[in-house]
Each structure stands twice: as C-alpha cells, then as structure tokens.
Fold these 4 entries.
Entry 1:
Amino acid sequence: MDRLAEKLVQGCKVLADDGQGDLIWGHVAARSPSRPGCILMKPAGIGLEEMECDDIITVDLAGERTGGNRPRHLEVFIHTEIMRARPEVQAVVHTHPPHAVAFSALCRPLLPIGHEGSLYCDGLPVFDHTSDLIVSPDLGQAVATCLDGHNALLLRNHGIVTAGRSIEEAVMTAVLLEKACKMQLLVEHAGGARASTDPDEAKIKRERIYGQESLQLAFDYCVRRYNARHTNGAHHGQN
C-alpha cells in the first residue's frame, strides 16, 4: 500500500508538471491490488502538485470515503464506475488540460498527426451527455459505458479521462493525449491536416513506441524531471 501511495503522489506531480493542474481540481485514483474494493484517491481541496502520502483518502466502489481526513471529490464516480465496469483497470485520471478541452470543442476526430496520436488510433470516444460535473453513479456509469474498452476519452467542454493497468500507464496516457490534442490544434490553426499516419501504421507505431515498458520508463523520466526542477528551485531560493 505504501508503494502504491507513493506512485499516486508521483502521478499527481507528473500531471501538474505537464500543465494539467487546474488549481484544486482534477484527480487520480488507484485500486489496491490486494483489496480491489479499496481505492486510493487524491482528495478535494488541494492541487495536484501539493499531494503527499498523508493527504490520500480511500473510497469504496460505492464512492464512500473509508479512510483519510480530507474531503472526497464530487466526481469520485468517474473512478469507481470505470473500475467497477473494467476489472483490469487499476488507475484512472481525470484532469482539465487546456489543449484537450479546447480540442473537444472542435467536434473533430483526433488524428495520428504525431507519434502520440497513434496511442488513440482505435478511436477517442467523446462523452457529450453533459459538460457538468460527474456527480452521481448514473453519470459515472455513462462515462464508463462511453469509455468502453478504450484507454481514454474526452469529456466535451470539460476535460479528459484516462484508464490504465497501472498509475504509470494512466498518467502517461493523459500526458500524451494532451500532447496529441495540442499537435492537432497547431495543425488546425495552420489550415488543417493534409497528411496523417495511415491507420494500420499507427497501430504498429503504438505497439513499437508506447508499450507498457516504454510508458513506465517515460513516467520514471517525468518523475526525475519533476524532482530535478523542484530541487533546483529550492537551491536557487536559498541563494
């Protein structure tokens, strides 16, 4: 449990370092491998970059807080209902990255323009039932149904949801989705894509570039980068 808590904290800080922090909003949750009905989660009221192990709360699959002192996010049902529907999912991310939110308003399919777009070559579902918060089990179930077997979706005019077999996979899927949306926005601003990767080749690229081991290594790099930046910042502040 301690190792999972440490990974959860690292995942929150990686997302913040990627620009996916939205003041105190956005959250990450991970299922305990030894207790599938126990979910560790970032609490409400603090930023992603502020997360520490002592801040973590636990919730059950009904969304009820079972441990920790901080308040629970209203959108806990994004996490619980996806995990209920998909036993293989061990971690879920929900953030509001600016390029992904902007891209969702275009109502266009995400193309594999750069390498990162190939990670979503099986399709990127869009949840457009509401742009409001996902504050009930029914809405959580609707998000889970929309996600289906995919690794990510857009919440129209709201944010993103990613799911993974590990915290590392869910977090890096979110990081790469924001990058893919930014890439396409750049192309749209220049007049629209005239070329993108062939769908069959995109699947090959996805397996070659973004396998589970590669995503783990990329996550480890992002943790090192975050630590280096903040260590350097601390040293500079002492001068």
Entry 2:
Amino acid sequence: MRDLSVIAVLGDPVRRSLYDYVAAQDHEVSRGEAAAATGVQRPLAAFHLDRLAEAGLVEVTFRRMTARSGPGAGRPAKLYRRAAAEHQVSVPPRDYRGAADLLAGVVDMIGGELELQRAARSRGAAAGRAALRDTAEAGRHDRLTGALSEQGYQPYPDGPDIRLRNCPFRALASRYPPLICGMNLALLEGLLEGAALTGLDARLDPRPDECCVAVGSSKSNEC
C-alpha cells in the first residue's frame, strides 16, 4: 500500500500544482521559484514541497545560488527536482509491471523486435487519430504537444525540436534498451502519422533522464 499512500499525497490541489511545476522543469527548483510559479506564499510552498520530498515524489539537493563562499555567503538553498522513482496503484494489488517485464524478456529472447514495433506503430497511429479528432481545430504545435502529453511524455521545446522529459516505459527501457527504445520510436512514428503531422519525424536521440526519442522537422533530421 506504499504507492497508494504516496499518490494520496497529491490529493491536495496546492501540493499537486507544485509537483506538476517541479516535474515539468529541466532544472532544480527553489522554494521561491515554485511559490511564484504557482501563486502561493513561500512558507506554504516550502511545507508542501517537503511533504512531496517525504513521499519520495521529489528529490532534494542543497546548492549555493551564488559564486560566493566562506563566511557571509549564506546557507545553501534547498532545491527540488522530480524523483526518478515510479509509482503505480491498484486495489487489490496487481503486478502489471512484472508481467510487462516477463513479456519484454520473451520478445527479446525470441527476436520479436519487428513484430513489437509493428504493434507499437499501430497503437501510436490509433492514439494520433484520436488526437486529430479531438483537436482538429488546434494548430500543429498544440496538436503535437497535446498528443504527446496525453501519452505521458511531458514534451518541451528545445530549439527546433520537441524533447520528451519523461519516458513512459523507463523501468523496462533500463532493462531492455534496444527493444524498448525501438518500440518507443515506432509508437511515436505511428502517432505522428495518425495525427496527420506531416513534415515531422521522430528519431532516436537519447539524453540522460529523458526519453530516448526526439521529434523534429523532417528537413532538420536529414544528414
């Protein structure tokens, strides 16, 4: 029931908004920044951020915010970032993660990568068609980020590309990188096709602590 108690921590709307803000950033967040971004007082933000840290939903580091050191430099600031740990809840408990691990192991053992990618591309296309239907009036950028967000990728702009802060398959990707990253790429290729986002390509471009896939224009991906 540990995961259930962790998720319950997010039941408070202020705490949830603080978590969403911290999780969406590519840098460690101070109490003052989080308070300003969510429109609450700093002491209240500090209280809720520490509750999130106690629950394991965010991680805490301490760092001086200036180059000064020694006496008079002040105490290091307490900073927060999204925790790498994953949580899932079902009542009564069900081990879907264990089943996924077994299935991935079998696919890897029998060399079923192409079949897995074919299935992933089909699933991605279905998700893309649903996004197109629900956001037909939206611009291309909003349609893309909306479709990616719906799948849990936490997209953010990075120059001409869209990077993905979260990997929905992180636990499996750490055990079977080629298999799961190939599946992930195929899924996103299908999503772009299904959402009629022509001129955009998904490509493998791993970064630490992010999804292994990035999305950019077809021209920018040509060698």
Entry 3:
Amino acid sequence: MHPLIHLALSLPSWQDEQPFLVTGLALGGVYALSGVGMIVLFRTTGVLNLSFGAVGAFGALISWQLINHSGMNQWLAYLACVLFGGVITLAYGMVFGRALAGRDPLVKTTATLGLTLILLGAMDLLWTSNGGASRSISLPTDNHGFMVGQIQVTTTDVIALAIGVAITVATTLFLRYSRLGTAMRAMANDREITATLGVPVRRVEASAWFGCGIVAGISGILLADLVALDATTLTFLVISSLAAALIARLSSIWITFIAAIIIGVVDAGVTPITSLTNYRDMTPFVLAAIALGFLNRKRVLSLARQEF
C-alpha cells in the first residue's frame, strides 16, 4: 500500500483528535513559558541554558518526595520545587557566570550540559528508575474543569496555557518599562559598555539566572502533571522549548510564544495518528528546520533584491 494512502486511512476522526488538541494547547503554554525563560537568560548572559529541563525534573521529584514521604502540604511542596529551581540555577550562574562571560557562545551553551548530567545522575541515584511508573504528580486543579462540546477541559489545562500567556506579556512589559529590564536589554547589546555605565552587571545577571530557575521549577511541576513524572522525559522536553526559541532566533518573545503553541498542538495532534506516533518526538526538530529554512530563504531573497 502506498504510504500516503496508509496515512490517510490511519487518520483519526475530528472527534478523536479534539482532546489531544486541548492537551497540545496546555503543553504549548508550558513550552512558551520555558522558551521565554531561556531567551531572557540568553539575552542577558549569552548562555543558552540546556539544563532547564533537568532543573524542573529534579524539582518535581523533590515535590513528589515531600508529598508522599514527608506528608507536606501539596502547595508547599510545589513551592519547594519552584524555589529549588531558582536557587540551583542562581548558584550555577554565580559560580560559573563570570568565567563564562568572555567565552565563546558554543562554550557558554555546552557548559550547562554539565549541570544537566549532574542532575540526571543525582536523580537516578535518589529516585531509581525501578518503580518510577508509580510516581506521579496530580495537581488539585485536575479535579476541576468544564466541558467544551464533548471535550473535558481541566483547570490545569487552562492554567498551563494562561501562565504561558501571562509570563509572555509580563516579561515583555518588564523588559520594556522596568529599570532592571532595561539593564538586561542593554547587556544583551554590549555587556562591557553596560558595565562602564555603572550598571551592576553581576546583580542583573543574578536576577536573570534566578528568574530562569523559577520558571524552570514552574514548568517542571506543570509538565510532571501533564506528561509524566519521569526524570529523562522531563529533562528532554526542553527540546521543544529550545526549538521554539530557535525559531524566534533567540530574540523575539512573542514569536517564541506562537512557535511554542504550534509545536505543542502539532506534537499532541500527531499522537492519535498510528502511522506517525513513533515519530512524534521529531516534531520540534522538523518544525524548527522548516521555520529556519523559510526565514533564511526570505533573508537571502531580501539581500539579493538590495544588491540588485
């Protein structure tokens, strides 16, 4: 049978597809949240934080541990996850940030892989993969929601998308109108000149590292609920956020948001298509390659017209 015919026959009905699209919007909101955090840190310090997913995964597992073995209140445990993300990321930035400041962009990026490997190793040591399937995080908001036609939408789905929108709007306003945001934008243009103007560079960088970690913690909790509480899975979900940020050329927050929503929806929408399910992990790469190819082609054509 021709592959296209087989694909057409395996397509689910619109009714079967709708629940996955709701999940895709929720995931897209979290990917946008993560992508914005990565862009702000990159624009401020020049570091592309590839440990973002591992920080969120570690924090989510800490929350699970506190809830199930220490009897801590759920919301306090989730707060511990968020604070862990902020503290561990800030600590990394303060220890290695100055050393990385003058290094090559590739060195800055790959340096965070070391933190990723350390956190992955620690998670495997503290929470072995045996019995991992029994671990899960279920937010109280999972039990509340509403119906849209015949589709059940949980409050968690709404919160995930809403937080993505809220953080995107808040970050845009923060960078444009606040003194700290203005300093971050100045550092993105030229760190040395910004320092000579009397801007407390180290304090600004610390704020960016801490904010990125807080966002990582929030993302870890939401993804642990929406996807699964698995260290490896959560660690590498950062790829979707990274793809959205790359589509935006690591500069535009709103393009990152739109790209993240599209990636989330397409990724979830492919899930019920049996002939494509095994390839759904390629979604971020494919979409990023198409978008970057189109943008580069448009830029080449523009330059060609100018020269002509």
Entry 4:
Amino acid sequence: MERKKTETVIESSRDFARRNNIVFNDYLLLSRALTHRSYLNEHPEALEDNERLEFLGDAVLDFIVGAWLYNQYPEMAEGELTRMRSALVYTDQLAEFAKIINLGIALKLGKGEANGGGRERRGLLCDAFEALIGAIYLDSGIEGVKKFISPLLEDTAEYVLNHYKTNDPKSQFQEWAQSKGYPTPQYVTIGESGPDHSKVFEVEVKLDDIVFGSGKGNSKQAAAKSAAENALKKIDVN
C-alpha cells in the first residue's frame, strides 16, 4: 500500500510570535516578513514578499548590533568592534539565530522552494531573519528590536569573542577604507538571475560612488563578500 506524503504544517504568524514572546500590533507586517517570493509567485492573493523588509532589517541590525557592542565592550577598539559586528550579522550567524527561534516552520514558501529544503537553507533563513527584524522595527521601533535581539546577542557574543578568528573580507575592506579616509563601503545589488530556489545575485561595492569590486553569490550576503574579496585583490590587501 502506497504511503501518503505528509505535508509540512506551516506555523501561523500569531503562533510564531506567541512562541517567541514577540508582541505585534500589526500581524500583517509579521506575515509579510515570513513570506518568501516563491510563495508570492504561486499565491497571487498574497500582496507582498519579504524582500523590502529584509533590506530594512539589514540596516537596523547593523545599527542595533553596533550600538549593543559599543555599550557592552567599552574598552574594545574600533577595528575589533567592526570585526565583532561583522561576525554577529554574517549570513551563517543570522541563520543560526533563525534556527534558534525555529523560524523555518513559519515561513511561507512556494512548493519548489519548500521541497528543495528551503526551510533549512542558510541564505534563505538569514534573509527571513533580517525581514523579521525589519517588521519588528516598523511595528515597535528600536526598543522592540533591542528587546528581541539582545538575548540572542548575549548568548552568542562571548563565544564569538573567544573563538571567532575573522578573515571576513567585508571587515577588512571597511578597515582599509576607513584608514584611507573613505566613508563606509556601500554594497549595491545590480542584478539577479535563476529560479527562486537557486538565485544568483550580483553585487558591487562602492566608495564615494566609485566601484571597487563586484561579485556573485547565491545570497546577497555571499555576493557582497565576493565583491569585497574582489576589491581587496584590486587594492592588493592580503
């Protein structure tokens, strides 16, 4: 007798928020944060995917994590703060945060993405976590984000400080740029291709509107890392 294939039960946005003790006033924001573009392609009634929230959450995370580190480690030098922040907002670490809160079971994915293991894919989990941060920020401001993210940072920062030896090219390029008097590098997505479950992104890194490097990857973070590596090669920094 042929067994029926069991479908993954998607956790509702309200249950997800309740389980993780996140208070939302507007659950439509949270629902949007949990909606991947592949779901939108198959469900035209869904109004928007989480990519704009991901963009916002990325910026909010940089600020919140930077401020948290500044206050938590008052004696730490600027370069080390930059490396610590980079380690804490890196794709793999944000994916780990997403796994800690079991974000995958609440994601609304298209069938192809879900069947292809999207709920466990690090790049997708990282992007969804950033979108969640963006939604929390819009719903309850900086204080809401701090309340949510601080316990995760507290549980992780000491391990990162003691064990993480960064060779992160984005940090290296930012340190070089600062040493030369440039502003913070800007990473700009200039293209994407491929199906939803296997996207390839192309990113340029700029200083003062001058392109210093470009790169490709299966996530925006991976493409940005590749762009930084390319920039470091061009300026001959080892």
